[in-house]
Amino acid sequence: MADLFNIGLSGLRAQQAALAVTGQNITNASTPGYSRQRVEAQALVTGTQGGSFQGGGVRIEDIARITDEFATKQVRTDTSLFAELNTFNAQVQQIEGTLLSDYGGLDSALQSFFDSLQLASSDPSDTANRSMVLGEAQNLSARFQSLAARFNEQQSNVTSVLHAGVARVNELAEGIARLNDRIAALQGNGEGGASNSLLDQRDEMLRELSTHVNVTVASQADGQVNVFIGKGQPVVLGSEASRLELTPQGQVALWMEDSAEPQIVTSALTGGEIGGVLEFRDQVLNPAINHLGRIALAVSAEVNQAHAAGIDLNGDPGGQVFTDLNAPEHARQRAVADEGNTSRPSLISVTVDDPLQVPVSDYDLVFDEASSGSFFVRRASDGKMVFQGRLSGELPQTLQFDHISVTLESGEYAPGDVYHLQPLRNAAGAMGRVLDDPALLALAGTVRASEGYGNRGDAVMEVGEVFDADHPIFASADGTLPPLLVRFTSATSYEILDNSDPADPRPLNPPLANLPYAPGQDNSLLPGAGTALVRFEGSEAGRLPDSATILPGLGSTGNGYSSQTFELIERDPATGSVLRHQAVNLGAGSSARQIAAEVSSLAGVSARAETELSLSNLVSNGVGTPLGIAINGVNLGDISSLNELADAVNGSDALRSQGIEAWSDGSTLRLRDAEGDDLTVQLAGDPTDSVLLGDGSGGTLSLNGAGAGGDYRTATVGGTVSAWLEPNLELSSASGGVMANDPEHHRADLGFELFLTGRPQVGDTFTVEHNTSGIGDNRNGLRLAGLLSQPLMGNPKLSFTDSYGQLVQTIGVQSSQSQINREAAASLLEQSTARRESVSGVNLDEEAANLIRFEQAYNAAAQIISVARETFNTLYNAVQ
Amino acid sequence: MRISTNQINQQGINSLLDIARQVADTQKQISSGRRVVTPGDDPVGAARIIKLKQEIELRAQYTSNIDYAESQLSREESVLDHAVDVMQRIRELTLQASNGIPSADDRAFIAAEVSARYDELLSLVNARGTTGEYMFSGYQSAEQPITVSGDRVTYHGDEGRRMVQVDSGRQVAVTDSARSIFMDVEARSPVFTVTPHPANDTLAGGTITRNAVTDREAVAAFYPDDLLVEFRPASESPEGVANFTVRRASDNRVVDGLQNVTYAPGISVDVAGMSFTIGGQPQVGDRFFVETTSKQDVLTTVSNVVDALHNLDPIAEPEAFQEMLADTLAGLDNAMGRVLEVQTDLGARLNVLDSARDLHADLELNAQEMLSDIRDLDITEAVSRLAFQSFVLEAAQQSFVRVSRLSLFNSL
User: Do B140 and A776 touch (CB under 8 A)?
Assistant: First the structure.
């Protein structure tokens, strides 16, 4: 009987407990992280009766928390993924907002600026149009700045997200560690059921932790969990929590309980909001700022360079339109010392040498930990090592790579130091307009040309681009180009002279003479950029022999040139290493013409030869044998004056066909072979007759008559060679030759281009001069305006606008892709949440049913007691 | 599968939020009229939009450049039309003078009208554009292109031509220089010009004036060589007085008999058929150019005929008179021919402008359409989409209310 009472009573207790748990479930139905509970009951056995066990009621074993470890873990992983993509997407959407708008995008500002240049070019002397260009330049700078400001704002937004995230992670880690402690204590006491709500709390904390950063959770036997971030860096170990910290440079550092120094874990962090903003910062924001900076650098450099090639309303060369973004105040802000560096201070400047080609990337300058003084540079975009070097011991030291120059200006550099180089980061924000006077806008070209009034040919000259406004020729005398004269010495050759005195044009230094012209084609008259001129003019003693030879008749004595070797070396402009080494050998007595032909056979070399000889101090006494002169085997007969000799030379068909011409002003006769063949002068006559020869290289020789008998005093002179070399070539002649051993390489280009088409005739001239008062000229304006649609930047080459379009597209792709990924992660999270809910969530209908069920069971148990009492009463009454 | 109550609610709420977001997106598109608002809406489209916008702007800019060029060229055309009329009239007058032997009165009358026409021609050559710039002085648009002092016609401009960008890579000249139109006109036979060296001491005032060609053949034979007159130190002169030497430009050779010639103000020199007069007080070192040319500017041609009408007596010097008229007729014909060439070229340039304008109009329209295709919203589609989405939203709301009302507790 007592048994039945006990059984009933245990039933009452059990159902009461079940009702209480159901109540708990119902009231916590919407508590975050709550896992439904269930009473685990067990039937009791008291003894055996008749060979079988007899039940003794029910006992509550446990109040179980219904969870699925795997489902919980899945929820954490998916939460972390979703939070990352969601944050990333939200951040991208914030920066893409104004990129396409007419009022915030760069494209419309670029277009307006270059349109205003077109307009100003239509009427270049109009000040209103010029002012508009300045206004648009200001707008363009402001647009760069506002985009940069927007990006930078986003940068601080990222930092504040990181701050908040790191703070919350620390709180949660501490909370988890505390819970670990309590759970272990309760479980140690065997009060497992008591820890249910603590476990729920901890799971919820872990879930929240995973919204901030991706975590790995490892359960321990005592009920504690260890939590790791990144690549196994512990955040919680049992009841100990580590601390995260945000460094001033925006890196995430981890302080472990027992470590003295923090560990930088930024690159290892993935997932969650922190992973999302870090990913955004590295993959979207920094590249976008760099990309914009590169466009700013390119626009400012290209516009400034083109502007400098023109002249303003005052006739002065154009100054800067936009800020020089490589100026020291900007260049010195581009290297950031790593927080871990041991030596400070240091000053490093970073300049972008070619903004059109520079890669969009940051760099790390790393001083080798192991070897003192050696360092390397790593490109951040692909991790490639782009430069390796050693400290030279002398500062400043400049390193060049990837179209960037890095100058270590001062300071100390210790092994292990790292500098983060950001060549493009600050450029867009520093963009500004410098030009402030509309009159100083250089819309006109610097150079103009006109043809001589007496020209007989139909050639038309056109001035090309000024490619080097800093060429010394533009800075001579009064700060402008001196007037130049292009004069045709034949239909196929010309010379360029300094025409400062139109009555007496002088050769330039180095001389540009005897240049070839191809009639009927488009000829570029001036040597190209980087062309060097080497002149072989013979030894210091001149090219004339020391003494004249007596020949019995007409003939030549040879030019006396010894055999020689010409060597050509081509060097790599960046490294200076030899790319090509070629040599040509010329036998003794070769004429300048032959030398030029041989040297010209070397690729990249164009050589021309000519031979000049002057005759003066002609003395014809008129006694004895009359003075007679023969040139190159052509006897010109008796000569009494230089004028007569010149007329005789020019009248000789034989000499004309050899290309020999003479000019005489009465006191000096200039004899010239345009092809560089040897010139032989022979003199017959009375010993008192004489003439003085000069070779122009310093040599002179007096010829006098050899008396009666028909003998000739003979002298032969060789020509000179001028060789034009393409950039990076060096030409020298080995020792022993008549030609100079190590000739000077003169800069041959004039910093601008000249084109001539048509068929000029001998004597035709063209004057080239500074474009003084050329205020109606718009050539430079058109060149500036044309920059907009020119493909200039990168590889393949893109225009400024297209480069901006590329930036917009990149961000757009990142935005739309992250949107798609976000959706996918959201549905993953939804699924895993549903799975967890289906295991651990409370279903109110179920609980309602349970309520009814347990209430009924309770009532039934009460009935058991009632039956037991009645049974007892029956027995009691029977006994009475 | 077990479903928790929370989950039922959450799912309902999620789908409500999702549909509400779609409705809001569609509404945003409709209110902006654009399909692509941010680059993320269509990344490739966004880059294309930037390109197309640039193309449209650029074409609009080219079109406005073309309008400007057209107005410039039309103005030049009408100035040149007038110039041809004036030259034509001068030609008629010259013919009139060569017809028989005109009386002194006739000549004076003709000379008077030619003079008037000369002034008219000069003002046309020095015409200004709409903004007050000189039309024919090349780059130096603030310089009056041609001045006449005495009988020397000087061009102060250059041969620069202002270009206008009418298409990428195509520029059209909108100016021509007076030199190319009016100065470089082929003469009947070579003539010469005289110029003081720019470095001469102008304060002291040595002058040189051109007289007539005295020997046509001699000039033609000497052409294209030039002469240089240089004042030498008195010490070189046998008499120790001011003197000058004349040299040939090609080889600097002294012209026979013209070394250290004693200078007297107003001295007339005749070399190779060219006669010129030096006056004033030239200083030692002063130089003068005497240059032959096959070209003569139209103003000199006209002023020559005025001089001839005034100074030459057709009865006393019939040959010189007729030669002069023949020179003038040839010069005028060549000048008109030159202007005609320029006019033809102007016409060609105007044609280029027209076709470029048409091209830009076509391509701009084309780009507009493409831009609209990419960027703009199909309103009909969007509105019906909105209607459908609103309908779905309503349905979701109603079903949520219904489902959440179901509970066993209601029956307890």
Answer: yes
What's the CA angle centered on A636, arms A634 and A638, to 5 degrees? 145
Query: Quick one: pLDDT band at residue A624, thresholds 50, 70, 90?
Result: confident
How many angstroms separate the first and last alpha carbons of chain A?
18
The whole-number pLDDT of residue A2 equals 58
Distance CA A127, CA A135 (A): 12
Pair A657, A633: CB distance under 8 Å: no
Instruction: List C-alpha distances in Å: A768 to A452, A457, A486, A752.
Output: 10, 17, 8, 11
Pairing of strands A404-411, A397-401: antiparallel
DSSP category for residue B348 = H
Probe site for chain B from A773, A839, A840 (most B CB atoms < 10 A)? A773
Q: Which two tokens stand for residue A11?
A: 């039933």
Of B11, B58, B254, the CB nearest to A789: B58
Name the one residue in this structure whose structure tokens are 């940051």. Answer: A362
Asked if residues A683 and A618 have their Cβ atoms less than 8 Å apart, the reply is no
Tokens 């100016």 sit on residue:
B175
Q: How many angstroms from the chain centroid is the CA of residue A163?
A: 32
pLDDT in tens, A282-299: 999 999 999 999 999 999
Q: What is the DSSP string of A48-61?
A: EETTEEEEEEEEEE
Three-state DSSP state, B118: helix
Residue type, A714: T
Measured between beta carbons, which residues in chain A are less than 8 angstroms from residue B131?
123, 125-126
Residue showing tokens 């004597």? A763
Cα A29 to Cα B407: distance, rounded to the nearest angstrom: 14
Determine the 3-state secondary structure of A238 from DSSP.
Answer: coil
Rg (CA), chain B: 40
Cis amide leading into A743 (omega within 30) = no
Question: Tokens 């013209």 identify what position?
Answer: B258
To the question of pTM greater than 0.95 for the whole model, the response is no
pLDDT tens-digit map of A182-237: 988 888 776 666 678 889 999 999 999 999 999 999 988 888 899 998 888 889 99
* Tokens at A504, concatenated: 């007496």
- What does the block give as tokens for A854? 């347990």
Tens-place pLDDT, residues A8-28: 888 899 999 999 999 999 999
User: Which DSSP helix (H) or strand (E) runs through A374?
Assistant: strand A374-379
How far is the C-alpha of A145 from the C-alpha of A139, rounded, in Å? 10
The answer to whether the CB of A208 falls within 8 A of the CB of A75 is no
Exposed/middle/buried for A762, CB within 10 Å: 0-12, 13-18, 19+? middle
Residue B279, H or E segment: strand B274-280
Instruction: Classify the C-alpha dihedral B234-B238-B244-B246 as positive or negative.
Output: negative
Which residues of A are less than 8 Å from B247 in CB distance? 665
Helices A69-96 and A272-280 cross at an angle (nearest 10°) of 30
The residues in A 823-862 lying below 8 A from B, measured between CB atoms, are: 830, 833-834, 837-846, 848-849, 851-852
Q: Where are the beta strands (DSSP E) in A19-51?
A: 37-49
Using only the alpha carbons of chain A, give its radius of gyration. 48
Helix A286-308, helix A106-122: angle, nearest 10: 10
**Least CB–CB distance from B253: residue in A643, A816, A838:** A643
Q: Are A155 and A162 in contact, with CB atoms under 8 Å apart? A: no
SS (H, E, C) A249-261: CCCEEEECCCCCC
Say how many residues make up chain A.
Answer: 880
Residue ranges of alpha helices (H) inside A607-725 are 642-651, 653-658
Q: Determine, for residues B131 and A124 on separate chains, whether the beta-carbon distance falls below 8 Å.
A: no
Q: Please report the number of interchain residue pairs, chain A to chain B, with beta-carbon separation below 8 angstroms.
A: 238
